[in-house]
């Protein structure tokens, strides 16, 4: 049991399961990841872009997660880099961090990637930093068209190589002719790609990342009740306005678990990926070069004799942010044992 030193609220802190779909375990993982990312921030504008898959493709992604989510990552990154390298737009080599989300607020299936992108890049010869126009990164309509074309081309290739599976009402899509006919309307519909306003400085980037990088389909705070009716939770209706956006929903327990399990990723699948200048093998060298071009003085590392070890609280109150202390440890109960076996039994 824990008690907050600020607001005096108490709560049970269960042992960590370390599963990446657990909201409790991912909260601490997010803090560790953010501390590692602080050193990567540049003194430039940062932009937030989102690439979303249309509903028909989302439907077949349920049982083709590894293939379709992988394409979503790679083609979104490739689209950003291709348009950015075009001299008619930015004419620079850029970097991006992409984060996969697969859910809507009501636990519906809604796969999309959030991109965090520095507002500029290196010139083709790598000798100067090219900044984008203040408050504007890349044209979203151009991004949308290229993303749509390249994703559909890659989907056809995956189908031709037998990498896609189809079940239920989509079984017929295993036939190449039927699949091509199914894809045709997707070439003319709008694919949602949008860019939000630039972040208000590096600190805002970190605050955003702390909310999004390790988020799972539903957090403990949104759960209201579990009773004979099912599971009741809060959700946000983006089509409504004002306070009416925030609503409650009750789902039968089986349906709640079905919706949650839609968002469990395949084993070993990375949901945070870095591309371009920020790709893991070259990130350190590229960031050092960019800082040099921007005339940013790197922070001096303190000597071992001057290092002050900062002790961070292990538990943080989710209500007020104050440290929490352990007030009681619940002992492990005795395991249930089978009845003793009679003589002669094996």
TrEMBL record:
Top-level taxon of the source organism: Bacteria
Single GO MF annotation: DNA binding
InterPro entries (alphabetical): transpos_IS91 (IPR054832), Transposase_32 (IPR007069), Zn_Tnp (IPR026889)
Transmembrane segments: none
Pfam families xrefs: Y2_Tnp, Zn_Tnp_IS91
Domain Transposase zinc-binding residue range list: 2-53
GO biological process: DNA transposition
Annotated Transposase IS801/IS1294 domain residues: 95-280
PANTHER family with a match to the protein in the record: ISSOD25 TRANSPOSASE TNPA_ISSOD25, TRANSPOSASE
Protein name per Swiss-Prot or TrEMBL: Transposase
Species in which this protein is naturally found: Caballeronia concitans
